[in-house]
Write a structure and sequence with these properties.
249 residues; alpha/beta; Rossmann fold; 8-stranded mixed sheet; 34% helix; globular
Length: 249
């Protein structure tokens, strides 16, 4: 189901999948990515969760508010996420995020810990991104995947298509306005951190995992930055195994 939600001057594009009676799962997309980036894992997730995903304001099909600057903060994105949860009468949810979206998810989980059951933070990084190292790691990982007989997964159509492309860089700039390292200790829920061995975010991911006593770290072999897009099969399996462990299955 697709809906449009008004949220403090913006209009959010929101999608839901699965039965509303199932545990809720909130997805946070990667940098400059839309809800479409999750398309290849949704069939696996919707069997067990009521899946909620939304384009952050100014990205994808979500419109920005009139104020071009003040709205682009992790605090505002977290408030928007609460707007989504409240609309569907969801009190608490699981969280899954990737890369830039993990920064937004860390902020959300630290600001509203009472609304989060567990968090799967893929490619966690509390510092600034290194695009060149990300690209180099992606290339090396893909070469190793091909050598192992793993064919590339086609990117979901529209995963980086935006109605207002001029607002996307502003929206991504929220990471410069929030102290993520200070927020990490506030994540008291069970946390899975998963990052590819060819992703420069691995160093920070290890540091985040070492900070959180209620966390576990998974390192994907021959995977670079953008793990859900590169290996939707591996990432969805890892997420579901984390959920099985939480439930004692």
């Amino acid at each position: 189901m697709h809906i449009r939600l008004k949220a403090r001057g913006a209009t959010l594009h929101v999608e839901s999948d699965g039965n509303e009676g199932l545990p809720a799962l909130l997805l946070w997309p990667g940098g400059s990515c839309t809800t479409r980036m999750w398309d290849r894992v949704i069939p696996d997730l919707a069997e067990r969760f009521f899946v909620l995903r939304f384009d952050i304001r100014g990205v994808g099909k979500s419109s920005p508010a009139d104020d071009p600057e003040a709205q682009y903060t992790f605090e505002q994105y977290a408030e928007d996420a609460i707007r989504v949860l409240d609309h569907f009468e969801v009190d608490r949810c699981h969280v899954w995020s990737m890369a830039w979206g993990t920064r937004a998810a860390i902020a959300f989980c630290s600001l509203y810990p009472n609304r989060v059951i567990s968090a799967a933070l893929f490619e966690a990084n509390t510092g600034m991104p290194d695009p060149k190292a990300q690209q180099e790691g992606q290339k090396a990982a893909r070469e190793k995947q091909r050598a192992a007989g793993i064919e590339p997964f086609p990117l979901p159509e529209g995963y980086n298509a935006h109605d207002t492309p001029e607002s996307v860089p502003l929206a991504m700039g929220a990471l410069r306005k929030f102290d993520l390292a200070a927020a990490v200790p506030g994540l008291t829920m069970p946390v899975l951190i998963a990052t590819g061995d060819h992703d420069p975010n691995l160093t920070s991911s290890r540091e985040v995992a070492a900070t959180l006593p209620n966390s576990r770290l998974v390192v994907f072999e021959n995977v670079g930055h953008g793990s859900v897009l590169q290996r939707p099969d591996l990432t969805s399996r890892t997420f579901l195994e984390f959920q099985d462990a939480l439930q004692g299955n």
